[in-house]
Amino acid sequence: MANTGTITAEPAPITLDWSKTALVIIDMQRDFMEPGGFGETLGNDVSQLARAVQPIAAVLAAARDAGMLVVHTREGHLPDLSDAPPAKVERGAPSLRIGDSGPMGRILIRGEAGHDIIPELTPLESEIVIDKPGKGAFYATEFGDILQKYGIENLLVCGVTTEVCVNTTVREANDRGYRCVVISDGCASYFPEFHEMGLKMIKAQGGIFGWVTDSAAVREALAD
Ligand code: TIU
């Protein structure tokens, strides 16, 4: 594999040094993807997210083959809820609140079955897993330090949901100087229109937050 590759993307193609690039997979957890988890307690149709799994699995396999740094994130809270702001726990009228017991254990709590990454995308022992209490991967985590340690300048970003944790993380990363390339078919939302607009917001105005590509274009660039 060449050290650099050019990904077809919008608003323009982007050439990346693979040794300075990480694949970041956001919150592909049972709590968002499966019935009985946090996503469904908020009133969402979780089946909307399934379409992102296969494209992510394909990019993950290619990234592993290429020896790329892979980072998985998980949204969730400590069992005593000490890292869960009341403003988050008390929000809205969910069927179960964060910390309540559900069919996959306590909702959005670290160590519970619902907090696990789905089996199709289980991290390898060698891969990094960032546990985050917020929507963005940088807030109150070691994510920034780890990217710096590995000399990362570019992020290939996918996961769920497009307009919430993916967009928040991309905005945080963009302000910190990372080039973010978002994999459109590797993201999904409970609201298809938010998915579409969430991607448009990233690539508009000459790529105000980053670039948008798809899983086939990433695999093609990695295979070159
Ligand atoms: N509700 C929703 O769309 N998303 C979240 O609460 N978290 C993530 O996006 N991971």
Structure explained in plain terms:
The chain is of the alpha/beta class. 32% of the residues lie in helices and 22% in strands. The chain is built from 8 helices and 10 strands. The strands form 3 sheets. A 6-stranded parallel sheet has the order 7-4-3-8-9-10, with helices on both faces. Helix 3 (53-66) runs parallel beside helix 8. The longest helix is centred in the last third of the chain and has 16 residues, at 192-207. The radius of gyration is 17 Å and the shape is globular. The protein starts with a strand and ends with a helix. The mean pLDDT is 98. Bound molecules: tricarbonodiimidic diamide. Tricarbonodiimidic diamide binds at residues 27, 32, 42, 75, 135, 160-161, 164-165, 190.
Q: In terms of per-residue confidence, which ranges show pLDDT below 50 for 5 or more consecutive residues?
A: none
Shape: globular
Distance separating the two termini: 7 Å
Helix content: 25-40%
Give the C-alpha Rg. 17 Å
Strand content: 15-25%
**Series of H and E elements:** EEEHHHEHEEEHEHEHEH
> Helix count, per DSSP?
8
Structural class: alpha/beta
Lateral arrangement of strands in the main beta sheet: 7-4-3-8-9-10
Mean pLDDT: 98
Quick one: how many beta strands? 10
* Largest pleated sheet: 6 strands, parallel
Ligand inventory reads:
tricarbonodiimidic diamide
